[in-house]
Design brief:
single chain, 752 residues, alpha/beta, three-stranded antiparallel β-sheet, 12 strands, 53% helix, disordered N terminus, DNA-binding
Length: 752
């Protein structure tokens, strides 16, 4: 059957022309419609119908729809791009944290490996054993020294095991890279239910075969001797010794010590409280078999300071937090479990919230890429983007004719850029150049913070406390500073617990050696800032005078009169030195203590919404339940309740109705009144009046029954009331009646 003809396709004269016309018709896509050829299975038509006219939309509507679609596509594009930038920025932060933790533990890891190398030489010095002797069930040697099990006690000083899990995992990877055979056992393997057989099976599954189900030490000895593994030592890591079953761990130590010569096994035990913690859980026989060495990891506070310095005070990703957010993060770190894992989790949530709330956070991508302006070649710096940038609160809080200073460090000179009402070409170039200069040049504010931290180390101050205080944009020392008044405890510039005040007061108690160490650290920290470095170098002559006064010959054997004169001379030089150091601190705070919140466009880099972070971490489940019960229609999206306003309808959920009625009562609710109000909502007055009215027509009665449902029965209302009250009790919003007052319930939570 020949295909039928249509208006869109005139009948071709030949097969070739037909093929060409078909291809042209399919590729000819019109703006509003596409003309296709009829299918071969359609019935032929005798007449050709006129083509229906398809009217194009009006230009205004088309323009509006195009704008809306473009805006929607742009919003989707920027949302996806912000998510990608967040992944890039967070991967940079995460890699930095991992490098810091690896460096902080590298010294201990290297010490453990050196201890293993030294200990294995003493084991091999007793003589090599044949294969038959090595796999024999009974010991070959009976000397007490041959039954010593070399053990490393690693003190973690953590209350929780969250940080220790990653630490011992990295230790195992480090020892494996050095050629050791490593197996890791947790406290769950040392349970009384599994016994020592479960520990041996766990070791054999990690060393010999994953599917092995036999607890026999001879299998481990055969594997070590036959497969050419005797060149490398065997290391067993127990991450949390204090949570293990003492009897099971003691039995394992006794078994392994019997095979110490045949299989050189080294035991690494992690303890969190003290090095002598195994004395409290192990038996006396097991303790005699241990040849222990002690290693101590850095404390959680020290690791926190190292992470804080690498992420916020040194060039990393550009992301930072405000003063209030830093205070909340410190409180969360101290009040929760005090682990670095919780702090990193808080930091990640803050970073994610920043990228979800601030559109211009997408410009942080250039901090992870060297020598590239933000938005360069991507079209991100549009007019709308620049308008949003100059509408930020950090920019609009200044008057329109006010000069905003951007402290770009170029040749140690400060440049001033004017921001007017109009966005010109120069102003459009300021924002990317500002971020690029922050990326390339070191930040003097972070240098000042590190200098204060070096001085605060003598008073055991933590960098986290100093960081939180120096982030405060409303600090009094930003306006004026009086070090002499602070030293005399007469200043109201700093509070009683101010770290600045503690640092200045501690300077008077430092010895000449401590002052010399402080100057050396300041000199290395301020090497890139000539103005601060010159002030530090001016302190060296005073330091030499202090050292000369303290090293005068003949002081120990001199008479008391001369000794007192020399001592007064030393005190005088120390006081002069302390005053000079205080003056340098005053200079640094006055000139360079510019927190990030005082810099224009800081919203691009700085996360400030502490409420969002708090709700994401802590949450408010009871408050959420209350708000959901009062606004249930917004969640259910039902048509019957969407237009209700403040009126309660029978179609609402029973628990929502009951909780809304509870808002009319105080802390004590009368059950009878509460039930009557609930019943009134379920059976309105108009339904009662209609039920009493009589109609003569049967058709009208049937019509009313079809339109309105019958009111619920009394028993059904009571059952629904009891179920709703029980749900409120389970949610923790009310307390059930007591024997003293059986007719009343008490409200436990009140909506804000």
């Amino acid at each position: 059957m020949a295909p039928s003809t249509t208006v869109a396709d005139p009948q071709p004269s030949s097969t070739t022309d037909s093929f060409n016309s078909n291809a042209a018709a399919e590729n000819d896509i019109r703006p509003f419609f596409v003309l296709h050829k009829a299918s071969s299975g359609s019935k032929p038509t005798a007449t050709v119908k006129a083509k229906r006219r398809i009217e194009s939309p009006s230009p205004k509507l088309a323009k509006k729809s195009e704008i809306e679609s473009v805006d929607e596509e742009d919003g989707q594009f920027f949302s996806t791009l912000r998510l990608k930038v967040f992944e890039t920025v967070w991967s940079k932060i995460e890699n930095t944290i991992q490098d810091v933790l690896r460096d902080s533990n590298s010294k201990v890891f290297s010490g453990v490996h050196n201890w293993i190398c030294e200990s294995i030489e003493s084991v091999r010095s007793s003589g090599a054993l044949s294969l038959s002797e090595a796999v024999r069930s009974y010991p070959v040697l009976s000397q007490p020294s041959s039954k010593q099990l070399f053990t490393a006690l690693v003190l973690t000083r953590n209350l929780e095991m969250v940080d220790d899990l990653s630490t011992f995992e990295n230790l195992g990877l480090h020892l494996k890279s050095q050629g050791c055979h490593v197996a890791k056992l947790s406290s769950m393997d040392f349970s009384a239910k599994n016994g020592v057989g479960g520990c041996l099976r766990g070791l054999l599954r990690q060393f010999v075969m994953p599917t092995i189900d036999v607890a026999d030490v001879t299998i481990l000895a055969s594997w070590y001797r036959e497969n050419g593994n005797q060149k490398n030592p065997v290391v067993i890591i127990v991450d949390d010794t204090e949570r293990c079953s003492g009897s099971v761990l003691s039995d394992l130590i006794l078994i392994l010590s019997e095979w110490a010569v045949k299989v050189p096994i080294f035991l690494i035990m992690g303890v969190s409280t003290a090095h002598d913690a195994p004395r409290k859980i192990l038996s006396a026989n097991a303790l005699q078999r241990l040849c222990a060495s002690r290693f101590t990891l850095s404390s959680p506070a020290e690791r926190m300071d190292a992470v804080l310095e690498a992420v916020f005070l040194k060039p990393c990703s550009g992301f930072t937090v405000s003063h209030k957010v830093a205070l909340f993060m410190r409180s969360y770190f101290l009040c929760q479990d005090g682990t670095l894992t919780s702090f990193v989790k808080t930091l990640k949530i803050a970073c994610l919230q920043h990228f979800s709330l601030e559109p211009l956070s997408i410009m942080l991508e250039h901090f992870c890429q060297d020598n590239q302006l933000p938005g360069e070649g991507t079209g991100l710096l549009t007019e709308a983007t620049m308008k949003h940038a100059f509408d930020l609160p950090s920019v609009t809080r200044y008057p329109s004719e006010f000069t905003i200073c951007y402290y770009f460090i170029r040749g140690h000179m400060l440049e001033e850029l004017l921001v007017r009402n109009k966005i010109t070409r120069s102003t459009c170039e300021m924002l990317p150049q500002f971020l690029l200069d922050l990326q390339r040049m070191p930040n003097p504010w972070s240098t000042v913070v590190l200098c204060i931290y070096e001085a605060g180390k003598f008073d055991k101050l933590r960098l986290l406390d100093i960081f939180c205080e120096t982030l405060d944009p409303e600090a009094r020392y930003l306006k004026y500073f009086a070090p002499s008044a602070i030293l005399n405890s007469q200043s109201h510039v700093s509070g009683r617990n101010s770290v600045i005040r503690r640092v200045l007061r501690k300077l008077r108690d430092l010895s000449p050696a401590q002052l010399s160490s402080l100057l050396k650290s300041w000199e290395s920290l301020t090497a890139e800032f000539s103005e601060i470095n010159e002030k530090v170098m001016e302190l060296h002559p005073f330091m030499r005078n202090v050292e000369a006064a303290g090293q005068r010959p003949g002081l120990p054997t001199s008479p008391k009169k001369h000794a007192s004169r020399s001592h007064s001379k030393l005190e005088k030089e120390l006081k002069a030195m302390t005053d000079k150091i205080s003056a340098v601190i005053e200079f640094m705070l006055r000139e360079y203590m510019k927190p990030v919140e005082t810099v224009p466009f800081n919203e691009i880099l700085c996360f400030k919404n502490v409420d969002k972070l708090q709700s994401a971490l802590l949450g408010d489940p009871r408050g959420r339940i209350q708000s959901d019960l009062l606004e249930s229609h917004s969640i259910l999206n039902c048509l019957c309740c969407s237009q209700r306003g403040t009126t309660l309808l029978p179609s609402m959920h029973d628990t929502s109705i009951l909780y809304a009625l509870a808002q009319e009562h105080a802390d004590v609710i009368n059950l009878h009144d509460w039930y009557q109000s609930f019943k009134t909502i379920l059976i309105p007055r108009n339904s009662k009046a209609k039920s009493k009215s009589k109609t003569t027509s049967k058709s009208k009665k049937r019509k009313e029954r079809c339109e309105e449902p019958e009111p619920p029965a009394e028993a059904s209302i009571q059952a629904r009331f009891c179920r709703a009250v029980m749900e409120l009790q389970i949610a923790g919003l009310i307390r059930m009646p007591s024997k003293r007052r059986p007719d009343f319930v008490q409200r436990v939570a009140f909506s804000s």
